[in-house]
Design brief:
heterotetramer; A mainly alpha; B mainly alpha; C mainly alpha; D mainly alpha; C: mainly alpha; two-stranded antiparallel sheet; 2 strands; 76% helix; globular; D: mainly alpha
């Protein structure tokens, strides 16, 4: 590893990415950008696993294996989400998150 | 001591009569229920007379005083192991005397009613209630303990309610019945609380233990608890209030004039002879206790209530136009006499004169007052109106009623050889020896009594001849005979029965003699009263109007019974109804109910408040998700002490 | 299958049979039959109980039977009755049978009506025979829930509001009760068996916390003072048989429960709270009586009078001595019978005159003699006329209450006793306005006389009232025997 | 060394899924209506097979573990799904006749069920994560099943996005736990996962993922919209099976790794229970749409389940499993009726149910029993379930929580009675006309009613669960 860079610095990066994802989910209007923010969060977490495995427990590979699975699942999820958003778009031809509030109360 | 078990039949017969006429009366022809009622009371009368004969004559004196015999005594219900509520028959001088009086007067009224009530639609119902009343009165009289007395006391109250409200389609009768029951019930509340206090402090209800020297009341001297009275004093005065209510004494008298709404025979039986004397009988029954506890201070209360009631009633009686109301107030006045006489009485020998006089007056008063009422009944029956102004000059048409009425008036005015003289005179003697002021009051009342009695006598039978659309005829024999019997008795009883020999507080024999020094003035004032009435009313004169206007406003007050009805009306309706019941109903509807509905309403509004939270926007869900999680996280961290907000 | 459980099984079988019957008349006959058998069985049990007691078997509960239900949680189906429970069973049987006769003319959804009524009866029977807190609580809720349907579907006036309010308040009370049962369970060594709990001394702090919950939990059903608001609306809107059963029997569930569970199991707390609850009950007595004076609707009058009489029962119980207890139990029976007849009569009157407003009715004594006479007798019984059951019960309570010389107790006792006057006022006001006086409405002359099933229903409940009133000895001894154990138990910890 | 027989249930289910795929291909063109019968029949076989006893043990080095409790949890869920499939018989038939595709429905249902199996019997976070995702993603497909309806698509989007966020947050928690304890296996984590601030954060973040699926309050916002939007069978499936699985998973995982963090997650669950019960009830009061009404009712019921988890001992676990089983049956009864009615008449508002008893009494009775069981009224099973939950909570002295719970029971009784009022008390001039449901649907409803009536009174059921939970 590069000297001088401790686990906390890298961890800080991944946590920041995670909270950017959350912030994105809360503020953005467009459905696709919401999807992007969730993906951002998932990737930040994958990063976390790799960081912990690399820095704290170099001897084992559990972290890496986990992040691999995580990326695979995230992909599946995006595919499904896009499919549903498209079907929504086809019916309502708008992708704005706020006018999808017919179900409320 | 002789076997008195047959006395139970005095009760079984009227109860049987009540059940038969009550349940099957409507199915039988009307007359039959009349016969059944009269037959049962006749047999009861004979049995009562036999009891009196056997008790007073055969048993007589045992070791110098008359014994108390228990014909029956079983536990009816046990409150605790020691405190039991028993039913039984107690035979002692006053209870036997009362047995005779009640059965006799009831017999007379039964016979009279067969004539009076003929053709009335509720005929069987009347006789059923009469039997019920007789049973309850007899039960009250022979009670062995105070709770049994209360048991029958309430039954007497209810039967009087039923009888007063007999003509139930007349709203005034219904109101009168309700008023009678509620006022007496209010007084019974005092009676009941008195009993309950006794139940704890004296530990027993039995009369014999209550009045015995070594009993709980008289043996130890209890500390003063309330207004100088010991707990027993308080209990006894509360019990007296119960008696005063039933005997229509001063503050609780308002129901008696209205009770005249009932049929006249009912007034004769209940509001002349039996029910109204229940209070006097109660005080007589507990007389040793009243005399012993707190040095007899409660007796002063009894005496003064009697005095005030008699004066108050006598004044009002002078002004009334309805003859039955005059007789009602006269009854109240005479009972005031009896209460006073009990109040001034002592225990031993001559001092017991008041007690004996009161009982004797009760005995004689029952006779002549019943006669007066029945006489008034036959007059009303003939003239179909209660008001004296509609009557006059009836002497020619109704000879028997007129003469019997005259005899009764003479008796009540205390004219010698008539029974009233003997009993009232002894009361005046007892009062004179005890308290001059009381004697003076009673002396004046004696005069007023004579005046108002002869006022209605002359008003009904003499005075101006009125033209009657159909000439009034003498009442049929079945109504006239009781009048004659009662009249005969009123003349004979006074001197024939040496009452002192039979009824005394210490149950020893006492041979009183007429105290002429007091008798003459009382006869004089009686005669004066009669004379004034003669002037006023024998011939049609304007003298009564002039005198009453002379009295001016006070006459009006007396005529309206000193507005006591209105005061009670105000107290009952305004205070109790509007003053207490309405706020409670409002409180219940709004505050208590309001609180329950409020809880429901609050949850409803709270849920509408939260509606916005479920906005349907995914972004807001995401925000709530994360924000919620962070709040929980910080709370948990703070709880576990990982972080504190003190910076 | 022991006799007592039969009491629960027979109604259940009746309900199951009813499911397969559709003809209304057949439904009525079957339910009358079922409950008739039930009444006979209750009488048979009573006879057996008396014989057992006569034979000297003085154990606290008879016909006891204990089968394990949830073994790990120590929950047993434990049944048994003592004198009081037996008296309550008799009351329930009579009132239920009378109710079935009175509601003979229900046409709309008759089968559902009788099914719900009998389920309610099952719950009540089960409650009185069970000695295990869990089974008692289960039967208690089974008895409350059918009320919603009974009032909601066949009721009158604001029936939906009244049904919902009644059910919610009673279920809320049972919820509070659940908490106290759990508390009792855990603080007395994990057992629901009442006899064991009574022997076990619960820690005093637990008792102080759970006693009010249990007492109020049951008190709400017994219309204890501040929690009585469901009773006027509920009864006014309920159909006759339902208000008969509810006021007559279900409210006794409340008082019996408060007595059996709250006071018997937590004596120290019962003693500590006794003055407070006695005051509450005394206020309730006066409050109910005054409330009744203002009302013009017959059912409201009777509902408020029930609040007053129930207050008297709580008052009697909280006086904590044997006489007052006997009085309270007697009052439960006598009030049960009286209210049942009252509501039956109101039902009959309403069926004919289609109004319950006292001011509109008048002079009915001439037109409907049977109903009027029974009404007067029951009116007299409820104001405590000697010779009827009301007097016997009230006198026991008042004498019992006066056994405690403490000043506050005396004030409350005088307050409660003074209610006899107020009761007389509103009873006579109704009798005067409704039965006596001139006939206000000409149409009333043509009203039909009482029909056979109405007479049977009314007399069925009227005769016991007179019987208890005239000869109370047999009932008081029965009750006092079973009270002996409880009062000693209470006195041991009491003042 | 890996005894593959341990994964018997999973393999049988996987077999059914593959068979369905093959059947899909084989039956193109021919009448694929038979698929409905085949799928249901196959699943019934699977359930029966599932009842056979299974040995206890672990596989893949502890990453998959099964014992009697887990095994029986799965068979409880199987029974739930069987009843559900029976009830959706007519819906599936119509789905096929209108849109010509029904196998996807069964395919998705079974795969989510498989995911739940893995989630429950997972021994490490990887298996757990895979199970969780496998249980969530196909559900999004199910929710958005009605391609024609806008609502279904909107619900689908909401679900998939929220599921994404929750799994991300949950994984963040898992990564922290991994960071501290250095291993993903629960057994190893249990040794070196000691109370620390970051540990608390990790655990809570992880729990939020499960809280999302059980729809506890701060995380429940998706539930009403998704329940209303999705087709009724899916709603029923979600509220019954997926919630039960998530509850089981939460209970088991907390047992395995939550030992030392008791002072962290107990207060969290305590306040979440209070919030869930209260907010669930408050929202349910106002609902007019039946599906939304039952959604909030299920949210409130989840609050009661937490009482059991809170007591964190054998009795607590038993009461949770017992209550969940009874909850499944009561919900299937109510949802079954809603499903049949909305399918036949398309009416889902509460006022449409006015006078239901007069037109079709049997349906109304089933609904009545289901509602009474949810409300916890004796003699139906719900009463026993609720009572034992309260007993478990009271055993640990949570009297104030029991009081709040008890108040909420009363509030819940109010809105359950609103439905009873509509059905029995109210009359309406356009009631739901009386109709006869198909045989399988009737059987489904009958099974649910039998479960409600006898599970409570029949005490050996409770004892059976009790000795299951001896070793978790």
């Amino acid at each position: 590893m590069i000297e001088g860079i401790t686990v906390y610095d890298v961890l800080a990066v991944s946590t920041i990415i995670f909270f950017i994802g959350i912030f994105g989910f809360v503020t953005r209007k467009n459905l696709i950008s919401l999807l992007i923010s969730t993906e951002l969060m998932l990737n930040a977490v994958a990063l976390n696993f790799v960081i912990f495995n690399k820095f704290l427990y170099p001897g084992q590979i559990q972290g890496y294996v986990f992040s691999l699975f995580l990326i695979a699942v995230a992909a599946a999820e995006v595919a499904l989400a896009i499919a549903i958003i498209i079907s929504l778009y086809r019916m309502d031809n708008s992708v704005d998150a706020d006018d999808m509030d017919t179900l409320k109360g | 001591m002789g076997d008195f078990t047959y006395t139970i039949w005095i009760f079984i017969l009227p109860i049987a009569a009540f059940l038969i006429t009550g349940l099957f009366g409507s199915k039988m022809p009307a007359k039959v229920s009349g016969w059944i009622g009269t037959a049962s009371i006749t047999v009861a009368l004979m049995l009562a007379l036999r009891t009196a004969y056997q008790y007073f004559i055969q048993v007589g004196f045992v070791e110098g005083h008359r014994p108390t015999v228990f014909a029956y005594k079983e536990v009816w219900m046990n409150f605790t192991e020691t405190l039991t509520f028993d039913m039984g028959i107690l035979i002692d001088p006053i209870s036997v005397m009362m047995l005779v009086v009640v059965t006799f007067i009831s017999f007379m009224v039964h016979v009279y009613s067969i004539g009076y009530m003929k053709g009335d639609k509720g005929y069987y119902r009347f006789f059923a209630f009469l039997s019920l009343f007789s049973v309850s009165m007899l039960g009250l009289v022979v009670a062995t303990n105070i709770f049994q007395m209360y048991f029958f006391w309430e039954l007497v109250g209810v039967s009087s309610y039923l009888l007063i409200g007999f003509y139930y389609d007349k709203p005034s009768a219904v109101a009168a019945a309700k008023k009678a029951f509620i006022v007496t019930r209010f007084a019974d509340l005092g009676f009941l609380i008195g009993i309950l206090l006794l139940s704890y402090h004296a530990g027993t209800f039995d009369f014999m233990t209550l009045v015995s020297e070594d009993g709980p009341l008289l043996a130890q001297s209890a500390p003063p608890v309330f207004m100088g009275l010991s707990i027993f004093g308080v209990a006894l005065s509360l019990i007296f209030i119960g008696g005063a209510g039933k005997s229509a004494m001063f503050p609780l008298h308002i129901w008696l004039p209205d009770a005249m709404e009932g049929p006249t025979p009912v007034s004769a039986l209940i509001h002349a002879a039996t029910m109204v004397v229940a209070g006097v009988y109660l005080v007589a029954r507990l007389f040793p206790a009243y005399h012993g506890v707190d040095g007899g201070v409660v007796l002063n209360l009894v005496a003064w209530t009697g005095a005030i009631s008699s004066l108050f009633a006598a004044i009002i009686a002078m002004t009334q136009d309805d003859i039955k109301r005059v007789l009602a107030f006269s009854t109240m006045s005479q009972i005031g006499y009896m209460m006073l006489s009990l109040g001034v009485s002592g225990m031993e020998g001559h001092h017991g004169l008041g007690y004996m006089a009161s009982m004797f007056h009760l005995f004689t008063h029952a006779m002549f007052k019943a006669l007066l009422f029945l006489g008034a009944g036959s007059v009303i029956h003939a003239v179909h109106s209660n008001l004296m102004s509609d009557m006059g000059g009836l002497h020619k048409h109704m000879k028997i009623t007129s003469w019997t009425f005259l005899i009764a008036c003479l008796a009540i005015s205390g004219i010698p050889i008539f029974s009233g003289f003997f009993s009232k005179d002894e009361i005046l003697v007892a009062a004179f020896e005890h308290n001059k002021v009381l004697w003076a009051i009673e002396y004046i009342v004696a005069g007023i009594t004579a005046f108002y009695m002869f006022r209605i006598y002359f008003g009904i039978f003499w005075g101006k001849r009125r033209e009657y659309h159909h000439t009034p005829h003498e009442s049929p024999m079945v109504m006239a005979i009781p009048l004659m019997i009662l009249a005969a008795l009123t003349m004979v009883v006074g001197w024939a029965i040496p009452f002192g020999n039979y009824v005394m507080p210490d149950r020893m024999a006492y041979h009183g003699h007429i105290e002429w020094s007091l008798a003459i003035p009382s006869v004089a004032i009686g005669a004066l009263g009669i004379f004034v009435a003669y002037i006023f009313y024998f011939k049609e004169t304007s003298l009564p109007e002039k005198v009453s206007s002379a009295f001016g406003q006070s006459y009006g007050w007396a005529k309206d019974k000193f507005y006591f009805d209105e005061i009670y009306q105000f107290f009952a309706h305004k205070m109790m109804f509007a003053g207490v019941a309405a706020p409670i109903a409002w409180f219940d509807r709004h505050v208590v109910d309001g609180f329950m509905n409020g809880v429901g309403w609050m949850t409803e509004t709270f849920s509408y408040l939260l509606e916005g939270w479920q906005s349907g926007k995914v972004r807001q869900y995401g925000f709530s998700f994360v924000a919620g999680l962070l709040v929980i996280l910080f709370a948990v961290l703070y709880l576990n002490g990982f972080i504190d907000f003190k910076g | 299958m022991d006799i007592l459980s039969l009491l629960v099984v027979i109604p259940v079988i009746t309900v199951l049979v009813l499911f397969f019957i559709n003809d209304n008349q057949m439904v009525r006959i079957i339910s009358a039959l079922g409950i008739g058998i039930e009444t006979i069985l209750t009488l048979f049990i009573a006879k057996g109980f008396m014989a057992e007691r006569a034979a000297g078997n003085s154990s606290e509960f008879l016909f006891t039977r204990d089968t394990v239900w949830f073994e790990s949680l120590n929950i047993h189906y434990f049944v048994g009755i003592d004198g009081i429970a037996l008296a309550m069973l008799l009351l329930t049987a009579i009132v239920l049978l009378a109710g079935i006769f009175i509601s003979w003319n229900i046409e709309d959804l008759t089968k559902e009506f009788y099914v719900s009524l009998i389920i309610l009866g099952t719950g009540v029977f089960g409650f009185f025979i069970s000695l295990d807190l869990f089974t008692m609580f289960l039967f208690y809720e089974v008895a409350v829930i059918p009320m919603y349907l009974l009032i909601g579907i066949w009721g009158t006036g604001p029936k939906e509001y009244a049904a919902m309010k009644l059910t919610l308040m009673l279920m809320g009370a049972s919820a509070v009760l659940l908490v106290s049962i759990l508390g009792i369970y855990y603080y007395s060594g994990m057992t629901f068996n009442m006899q064991e709990i009574a022997q076990m001394e619960m820690p005093i702090h637990a008792q102080r916390f759970f006693f009010p919950l249990a007492f109020v939990g049951f008190g709400v059903l017994g219309a204890l003072f501040p929690f009585h608001t469901w009773s006027p609306d509920g009864h006014a809107s309920a159909p006759t048989a339902v208000s008969m059963l509810h006021a007559g029997v279900l409210m006794k569930l409340g008082t019996y429960g408060a007595f059996r569970v709250a006071m018997y199991l937590m004596p120290q707390a019962a003693n500590e709270y006794s003055t407070f609850f006695m005051g509450l009950a005394a206020i309730g007595v006066i409050y109910g009586a005054f409330g009744a004076i203002r009302q013009t609707d017959l059912k409201y009058i009777n509902a408020y009078s029930s609040v007053s009489h129930l207050g008297l029962i709580f008052f009697g119980m909280m006086a904590l001595n044997k006489t007052a207890y006997t009085g309270a139990v007697l009052q439960m029976i006598s009030h049960g019978l009286m209210t049942a007849v009252f509501f039956a009569l109101i039902g009959m009157l309403y069926g004919r005159t289609h109004t319950r407003d006292v001011r509109k009715m008048g002079g009915l004594l001439k037109i409907l003699p049977f109903i009027a006479v029974v009404y007067v007798i029951i009116g007299m019984a409820s104001l405590g006329l000697p010779g009827l059951s009301g007097f016997v019960a009230e006198m026991n309570i008042f004498v019992g209450a006066f056994q405690n010389p403490d000043f506050i107790h005396r004030v409350f006792s005088v307050l409660a006793v003074s209610a006899i006057v107020v009761t007389a006022v509103y009873i006579l006001r109704v009798v005067g306005m409704m039965l006596m006086g001139p006939v206000k409405n000409e149409a009333f002359y043509k009203l039909p006389k009482a029909v056979w099933y109405e007479r049977v229903g009314a007399l069925l409940v009227l005769l016991p009232v007179i019987a208890i009133g005239l000869a109370p000895m047999w009932l008081t001894t029965l009750i006092q025997e079973s009270l002996g154990h409880i009062v000693e138990h209470l006195a041991a910890y009491g003042h | 060394m890996n005894n593959y027989l341990l994964m018997r249930d999973e393999f049988v289910l996987l077999g059914i899924i593959l068979l369905l795929l093959v059947a899909e291909i084989m039956l193109i063109g021919k009448n694929r209506k038979a698929v409905v019968g085949i799928a249901t029949g196959l699943f019934i076989v699977h359930t029966l097979v599932g009842f056979l006893p299974l040995a206890e043990g672990t596989m893949f080095g502890g990453s998959f573990r099964t014992n009697h409790l887990l095994h029986n949890m799965k068979s409880i869920m199987n029974v739930g799904v069987v009843i559900l499939l029976l009830q959706t018989w007519t819906w599936a038939r119509e789905e096929w006749s209108h849109k010509g595709r029904v196998t996807e429905f069964y395919f998705l249902i079974f795969s989510t069920l498989l995911g739940m199996y893995y989630m429950i019997s997972s021994g490490d976070f990887l298996m757990f994560f895979l199970g969780l995702e496998l249980a969530s993603l196909p559900v999004a497909g199910l929710v958005a099943y009605d391609l024609m309806k806008m609502r279904s698509a909107e619900a689908g989007v909401k679900f998939i996005l929220m599921a994404g966020v929750s799994s991300a947050v949950s994984l963040f928690g898992i990564s922290m736990i991994y960071g501290i304890s250095g291993s993903l296996y629960f057994s190893e984590i249990a040794q070196n996962f000691h109370l620390s601030g970051l540990g608390a954060l990790g655990l809570l973040f992880f729990m939020s993922g499960l809280a999302f699926k059980i729809s506890l309050v701060p995380f429940h916002f998706w539930t009403p919209d998704v329940y209303e939007g999705a087709p009724v069978p899916v709603t029923s499936y979600l509220s019954v099976i997926s919630k039960a699985a998530a509850v089981f998973a939460l209970a088991i995982v907390l047992f395995l790794i939550g030992r030392e963090f008791v002072s962290v997650w107990k207060p969290a669950i305590y306040w979440m229970a209070v919030l869930t019960m209260t907010v669930g009830n408050l929202f349910a009061l106002r609902q007019k749409n039946m599906k939304r009404f039952l959604a909030f009712s299920s949210v409130a019921q989840a609050g009661f389940i937490l009482l059991g988890i809170l007591s964190y001992d054998q009795m607590g676990m038993t009461s949770v499993v017992y209550f969940s089983a009874i909850y499944i049956f009561s919900n299937l009864a109510t949802f079954g009726v809603v499903q049949v009615i909305s399918l036949k008449t398309g009416r889902e508002q509460m006022d449409d149910y006015n006078g239901l008893y007069r037109t079709n009494p049997k349906l109304a009775l089933v609904m009545l029993l289901g509602l009474f069981s949810l409300a916890g009224i004796p003699p139906v099973a719900g009463f026993f379930g609720k009572f034992f939950l309260f007993m478990a909570a009271a055993a640990h002295g949570y009297y104030w929580l029991v009081i709040i719970g008890v108040i909420n029971v009363t509030i819940s009784l109010y809105y359950y009675l609103l439905v009873v009022r509509a059905m029995f008390l109210r009359k309406s001039d356009t009631p739901i006309e009386s109709f006869q449901a198909e045989i399988p649907v009737k059987i489904g409803l009958a099974l649910a009613v039998v479960g409600i009536l006898f599970l409570g009174l029949y005490s050996p059921f409770y004892d059976f669960i009790l000795n299951l939970t001896t070793n978790i």
